[in-house]
Amino acid sequence: MKPQSRTLRQRGFTLVELMVSLAIGLLIILALLTLMISVNRSNNEMVKANRVIENGRFALMLLAADVAHAGFWGGYIPKFDDLTQPDDSLSPLPGAPDDYPSAVPDPCLAYASWDAQYKKNLVGIPVQGYEIPATVPSPTLSVCASRVVSPKASTDVLVVRHADMRDFKCVPGASGCDAVDGDVHFQMDRTCGTVPPTTPYVIDADKTQLTLLQRAIPAPPATSSCATTEMAAYRKLISSLYYVRNFAVTAGDGVPTLMRSQLGSGGGVEHKPAEPLIEGVEGFRVEFGIDSLSDSGAAVNQTAVLHWANSTNKTSPTNRGNGIPDGSYVRCTTATPCTVAQLANAVAVKIYVLIRADNITPGYTDNKTYNLGSTTLGPFNDNYKRHLFQQTVRLQNVSSRRETP
User: Fold this and answer.
1) How far is CA 307 from CA 86, 345, 380, in A?
2) Model pTM?
3) H or E stretch covering 131
């Protein structure tokens, strides 16, 4: 007897089921793709934001570190700012300080034209600024045209001067000291503090002119005539010029960049061609806090002989500052350039830096305004994100020597 045969039906997905499953799969893939694009976009925006913050913080750190050293001359204090000088109540009547700056110095003046008065101006004005106007002058700028190349309109130029901090007690010829290689150096007389030196300091790029002396170490007894001396320490003169160029690598690339030109040698003593520091610096403003009043509220007059309110206790000189900014901070503009009196009495610098992202953000429009002290930038109405950074830096070497009990 033959076994009964059974026909088994094979079952699978129907066409409808297959199409539904494909549709669901496509929806899942689309959702994952959308999520991936969103995450990638968020990561890109986060990278942009982090870069803006890093560039802004680095710009402020770099500028503030240099500005904080402005007016450091290795222990030398300009006579007009020296509160150890005799006042006008003493006899014989001392003369007025003769080292007060006579003019705001041209930062890029050819070294061959540096005369004695120009060097006094450099020491007496450790910081200065000027404006790049909204319409950049054509064909050239009136100051430092060979170094402030392709400046961005509506920005500022900042100049900072001081002696190098690195060569503390660096005596010419000593091991580890910088060689006098043509750079400009500052050398201060350190022989006898009780006898005002005829030449209190020397600023020169010629090593044969660095001839000032200091007490030998160990120093001779106080009753000696300071006959035992050695060559005085010297420091490199630092002069840094900061500005914003309207491109980063090639002209027209549209990436504003913070630049720095420094005084140096090699092919002649001069401010060297500026080097790029930080990209994306779109706005740069500098304002100065001016110490224009004494403790008593009287106006500062540093061209006159020092006068104390109480010459016995030496408290509150009536014609010298107290190291504190008075009134509003001042910006040096083309219409109203800063005066000698303002810059010689600057005791603080307020720095504003507006940083722009590297790339645009689709769908974003920057319609904000940015307050950079006395001026406002924006709205830009473009697709770049921006952030404003600001910091006030005290000129410690200037302000601290004006403080009195």
Assistant:
1) 8, 17, 52
2) 0.88
3) strand 127-132
